[in-house]
Design goal:
2 helices, 233 residues, mainly beta
Length: 233
């Protein structure tokens, strides 16, 4: 309780401090359970688990506070979002959770000023999604014998969507077969995705120029509230 003698000055001070400590009016990253320990964060938020559109916002931590650096409209999986820890491959759902952003890639050259590691897509670049392959959920070049072409994406066939992208480290460090593979933050196509998060091309280029590997960027994906609320992650 605030003493009546504290006056308006104390009330004002508390109002200023609340966002820094995760109050209701705090920036979204300050209200999340975890942000990955870095000083950069992308948040991808949908209104609910069945939604296919929402908002991507990218944030910097400056002076102990999270500050918005940019935002853009986002698209999600054609069947909405699903808890990342129990997601099933092939369901066209975007996995919720907190993930690293290990590197970028694209059919086009990296935007000037890009500092993240960036791989240029070539004619033999594939992403293996074959549950029986030793290369499951990995970039491969060329396609190995144990990864069936029908269970892989030939990256140069998606010149629009993969003009620029960031790998989302969902099911990536220690892949679980059947959980899902090839989840990226990439450029918009014609509509909802097969499970990725997409944004307009200009926004994707801005994100690539903004991301600084020295600042440990991560991405948090979730809904406004409910069991898959982004604040849980």
């Amino acid at each position: 309780m605030i003493s009546p003698r504290a006056g308006a000055g104390a009330v004002s001070l508390i109002a200023l401090l609340l966002p820094a400590f995760g109050g209701a009016d705090a920036p979204l990253p300050a209200r999340m359970a975890d942000t990955g320990g870095g000083r950069q964060l992308v948040t991808a938020v949908a209104p609910g688990p069945r939604a296919t559109t929402g908002t991507v916002t990218w944030w910097d931590r400056r002076g102990g506070r999270w500050v918005e650096a940019g935002r853009a409209p986002a698209r999600f999986g054609a069947n909405g979002l699903a808890e990342g820890a129990s997601r099933v491959q092939g369901t066209s759902t975007t996995p919720t959770g907190l993930y690293g952003l290990p590197y970028g890639f694209g059919t086009e050259a990296a935007p000037a000023g890009t500092e993240v590691a960036y791989r240029r897509v070539g004619p033999n670049s594939w992403w293996c999604q074959d549950n029986r392959s030793l290369s499951y959920n990995r970039w491969v070049e060329p396609l190995p014998a144990d990864c069936r072409p029908g269970e892989a994406e030939k990256l140069d066939e998606y010149g629009t969507q993969y003009a620029h992208a960031l790998v989302v480290a969902f099911n990536y460090p220690r892949p679980v077969r059947g959980r899902g593979a090839g989840i990226f933050l990439h450029v918009d196509g014609r509509g909802a995705t097969a499970g990725c998060v997409s944004v307009p091309k200009d926004a994707m280029r801005r994100i690539l120029r903004w991301a600084d590997p020295a600042r440990g960027p991560h991405i948090g994906i979730g809904t406004v509230d409910g069991p898959t609320a982004i604040t849980r992650y």
